[in-house]
Hints:
Elements: E1 6-12, H1 19-29, E2 36-45, H2 56-71, E3 81-85, H3 88-99, E4 103-107, H4 120-126, E5 130-134, E6 145-148, H5 154-165, E7 171-176, H6 184-192, E8 196-202, H7 206-213, E9 219-223, H8 239-246, E10 251-255, H9 267-270, H10 276-286, E11 288-290, H11 297-307, E12 311-317, H12 324-337, E13 344-349, H13 356-362, E14 367-369, H14 383-393, E15 398-401, H15 412-423, E16 429-435, E17 438-440, E18 443-445, H16 451-464, E19 479-482, H17 483-486, E20 491-492, H18 497-509, E21 514-521, H19 529-551, E22 562-569, E23 572-579, E24 584-585, H20 592-604
Parallel strand pairs: 1-2, 1-4, 2-3, 4-5, 6-7, 6-9, 7-8, 9-10, 11-21, 12-13, 12-15, 13-14, 16-21
Antiparallel strand pairs: 5-10, 15-19, 16-19, 17-18, 20-24, 22-23
Amino acid sequence: MTDHKYTILLVLDSDASTPEAWINFAQKVAPEGQPYEILIRGMVTVIEEESLSVGAKPAQIWRDQLTTAAQINAEVEDAVRAYVDYQPALRAFDEAREKQADLIIFEWRGPLTLTGGIYTDALLAGAPTDVILLTAPPPASHLPVLLSLRGGPNITLGIRAAKSLSSESAITLYHAADSQRHTPYLEYIKRAEPNIKRAVTAVTDIADGIVGELHGHSAVVLGAALRGVTLDQTPRDSLIAQVYERATVPIALVRAYHPEALEFHMPYIAGSADEPSKKVDRWFAENTFHSREFSDLKSLVEMKEKQGLSISIGLPALNEEETVENVIMTLKRALMDEVPLVDEFVLIDSNSTDNTAAIAESCGIPVYRHMDILTDMGSRVGKGEALWKSLHALKGDIIAWVDTDITNIHPRFIYGIIGPLLKYPHLQFVKGFYQRPIKVGEKLQAYGGGRVTELVARPMLNLFYPELSGFIQPLSGEYAGRRSALEKIPFFTGYGVETGMLIDLLDTAGLEGVSQSDLEVRVHHNQPLEGLSRMSFAILQVFMDRLGERFEIDLMSHANRSMKMILQEPERFALELNEIGDYERPPMISLPQYRAKREAVMAND
């Protein structure tokens, strides 16, 4: 018995039947007596004329469907994913190389139809490991499986596939040979594999013979011989096409890996560098989650405990006495008292003049004034300052921030943003998004919130940081990240904190390290237009600062940080000068007092 864990990449098409049968087949095909793992992936194939972003909803459906199946099988990795691409099968090849997979199983659409955007010959030739193409797992049956192989390197994989497709592991060997003489090779296979109950040797009319023998069998396994790689579909007169078009049972096509098969020049398989727009579209489709994908809190707790992680929630607040109690109690009750998902809730108060801090203390959570944290660093005004200092106060490995002015608070505002981090270890940061109804008078309109987002933030991102153009609400106040990522980036102290955070995380974590999650609907107090104007002014300064760093030009030294606001009152019409600027705090990891505190925390764990 070997210590190597046999890795199977199970890749299902977008209209696959229930995945449980596929997982069952993958489990049976693993080598006997060897530990194994199954990575399950869905494919969403987008036609060339459309943006890859249209695959976002199908990808979410895939993850929902596959997650349920994965959770009941210990050998299946929890972090199911969906490839969204014009040729998603090539993505499977990339992951197989990265994970050093031993076998890829594709749900096969047949030799005359694209599977994952490419034809059968390219699938067989391009796979960097053993590959099985299977039309569908057969229903439970006591019938044997027909195995048609000439011999050679495919025989071992073919026998494993055949045994896995038969509930009795019974095999009929259909051997294509050049004469009726039973070759020594055939005799050896019959002696070595007791599950072969019957053997037939064919010389001519191989396809007719296979189809004729299918009666009384539950499936057929064919060995694939590489004919040479083409971009065209398999000819209709090929053996595989003839059997596929006439067979009434599932078909498996097997090809054992041998490196010489990949020694060809084929840019189609190798692919080319993504255009920026295509890269963003794919990111949008694959890294846009929905909070309902993570609503199984028990499963999240298991992931958290398995990874040895702790989770902290920071609640920034300034004069939120109307909503803060409901926010705290709703989240604390669901995520700490009833289910031990969150390890601490902390209110970070920005010197509220109402009862916000007292109400939070009465709810049983710690309250910090951000002015009292890292006092030797001084204190700045703004939400970003509170977030930055909360990194020092909070203890968790994963940190999430949720605003305290939400009137329709729900646990999804937390599990929707920490769930992706628990499920997908490669992710470093998750930004929430939602519908934002806006209150006009006493009426609630369905849309209209996020005005600064649509008029300032997203246009600027599209202009100068197109990699981030897929973020639906880059300024949202609900987001979560790994401490190891957040402590390495600077924080702007005011309205520009979210903008600076995204830009800096793009540099440190890369686009594939960040994601977004749909939190459905968020209702809160909307700011008046004057407040939005101040916000926009500060955010634009952050963009200019970061662009200046990129092009090595100190743009802000030439900019005016004061803004004249227009006052229109019954007895007064004038301009009022406001100083509006964000101060940049250094990465928290650069502070000796922070490093000392983290070392003490880790020593006590």
